[in-house]
Each structure stands twice: as C-alpha cells, then as structure tokens.
Amino acid sequence: MRTFREAAQSDRFTITADLTLQRDSGADDVARQVDMLGPHVDGIQVTDNPWAWVQMSAVAAASLVVQQGIDPIAILTCRDRNRIALESDLLGLRAIGVTSVLLMRGHKIPKDHSVTATPVFDASGRELVALAAKMADQETSAASEEFFIGVGARAMRPPRGWNAEALAVRSAAGARFLQTQLCMNVDILREYMKRLVETRMTWKYSVMVSLSTLPSAKTAKWLKNNLSDSRIPREVVERLEKAANAEEEGIKLCAERMQEISEIPGVSGVNLMTMGNAESICEAIKLSGLSRN
Questions:
Q1: Mean pLDDT of 219-238
Q2: Residue range of the domain that includes 271
Q3: Which pLDDT belongs to residue 39?
Q4: What is the tens place of the pLDDT at every residue in 144-156?
Q5: Residue 91 falls within a domain, yes or no?
Q6: Using one digit for the tens of pLDDT, what is the confidence trace for 197-225?
Q7: I need a surface site. Which of 88, 126, 130, 181 has the fewest CB within 10 A?
Q8: What pLDDT digit, counting tens, does each position of 65-116 carry?
Q9: Own/partner pairs for 281-287, CB < 8 Å, 24+ apart?
Q10: Contact status, residue 10 vs residue 256, Cβ threshold 8 Å
Q11: CA atoms of 114 and 121, how far apart (whole Å)
C-alpha cells in the first residue's frame, strides 16, 4: 500500500481528500467513497467530528479505509477527549495500520449547537503531538510504526518580524507536515509560503493546502461567517452567485486553484474537502490535470 508519508516527502504534487461523512454514514458508504477517490489520491483524510457535528469515529472510519488498501490520515483533536482517551485512540490507530495522523486542538463548540456538550481540552495541540511522537520511543515500537505527524497552520499575510516560532516548536515536538485551513485565496497563500521558505520551515515540513469544491454561494458565505480563519475571497463568492450551475462552477474554481497552487514554491500538495457531493472532488482532480489516474 502506498502511503501519504511517501508521497508528501517526495518531489511530486500530493493530493489527499476528506471522506464526506454524515451522522448516518455506514461501512458501505465509506467503501463507495474509497473506491471512487482511491485511484486519484495519495491518502484519504478521516475527520474528527468537524464543527462539532457528530459522525462515525475517526478510528472506526480509518479502519474501514485501511481494509480497502488506501492510506488514511486520521484527524484527532483535543476538544472531545482527555489524555487517556487521546492515547488510547493513537494506540488503536497504530494497531490497525494507520501511519499518518493530523493532530489539532480543535474548534470550540458553538454556543447554539444542537448537542449539549462540554469541551475537554485536557491537552494542548503541542502536547498531543509530543504524545504521538513519544510512542516511537516505547520499547514495543518499531521504526515502521512511527507516525507521520501533521499539525494545522493558518495561511495569512505574515506581519513584519514573523518567524514561524510556533511552527518551529511543534516541529521540535515531532510534527512533520502542515495543513492549512481552507484557503481559496492564492495571493495570501503565496505571501505565506514565501515566508515559510525564507524561515526554512519547508525544510522541516511538507505543506498541504486545504481547498474545497464549494457547491454554492450560500455554502461559501456560511464558511466565511462560521470559520473565521477560512480564506474565501469575494471573487469566489461572486462567481458562484453568477454561475448558471453553481456546483459545476465550484468544481472549476477548485481545479483552477489546484493548478495555481501546484506552482507555488514550497507547497507539497492539497487536501480537498466538500460540503456537497463527494463525487465533485474526483471531478475537480480530473479537471485540474493533476490526477494520479
């Protein structure tokens, strides 16, 4: 089985995609998506109750992906688990053959959320990275069992004097790849990547950029309003508003961004997500000309 680690650390442009999971998603739906996405990507990301929406656990979903011979990148956040639960899930992921994990603090639970729950945050994002990295030092671990650890990053226009200190700290803790928030703004991304190259962060990290096949202007506006760190320029929203078929326009926009981003120095690849049909991800990859198939 080819791994995301191998692709991200190579010279080729790497593509991963999110599983599109709903509360009622089951094994058959996961199998369908893996069959569809597998030929086009270097790994499939398994989300961890994004935006506090309850769905199948990341460990269970990752196990289903592994069974079909595709490398999963399992996401774990500190929001819903204490340290015992986090370590338990990491051990479970390693046991089923997961080689890459994306570890993040996690978003807060919205005040008006439909599920009443108390956020945990027993560990920080950096502490979670150190916990995962430490597993490789345990006597029962083998080198092949070391996780390829990723962390979240916020693409921005770096202020004067910004030296990526927080990223350097997480690298020292064991992180090896970065994944940005949803960033459809290529101008901001170019500025951000220029600084990462200047600070030699690209020597320490493989950098993945998050994109989406936005199905409508309404969805784009919702993301802008509810994910304050997302980067969706006005031009993207206007194109979706004016399009005769917004879903097709969203696919075209995503493919265009993929092509532009593939030419930015320091970028290793992209992760694709959607709030619509999972099929749109495959269509965007094919349209970009960057497909593995």
A1: 91
A2: 4-288
A3: 93
A4: 568 999 999 999 9
A5: yes
A6: 999 999 999 999 999 999 999 999 989 88
A7: 88
A8: 999 999 999 999 999 999 999 999 999 999 999 999 999 998 777 677 667 7
A9: 281/17, 281/18, 281/37, 281/213, 282/36, 282/37, 282/40, 283/213, 283/251, 284/213, 284/251, 284/254, 284/255, 284/258, 285/15, 285/17, 285/40, 285/41, 285/255, 285/258, 286/40, 287/251, 287/252, 287/255
A10: no
A11: 20
CATH of the domain at 28: 3.20.20.220
Long-range contacts, stretch 155-162, CB < 8 angstroms, 24+ apart: 155/180, 155/181, 155/183, 155/185, 155/188, 155/189, 155/192, 155/209, 155/231, 156/188, 156/191, 156/192, 157/188, 157/191, 157/192, 158/191, 158/192, 158/195, 162/195
Q: How many residues does the chain have?
A: 293
Global model pTM greater than 0.90: yes
Q: What are phi and psi of 205, to 5 degrees?
A: -130, 145
Phi, psi (degrees; rounded to nearest 5) at 157 = -90, 105
293 found inside a domain: no
Structure tokens at 72: 């999963």
In angstroms, the Cα distances linking 265 to 150, 190, 206 are 20, 8, 12
In single-letter form, the type of residue at position 55 comes to Q
**pLDDT above 50: residue 143:** no
Assess if residue 19 is contained within a domain.
yes
CA dist 102 to 159, 265, 271, 276, 292, Å?
A: 26, 23, 12, 23, 23
The domain tally of the chain equals 1
Helical (H) or strand (E) element with 242: helix 234-242
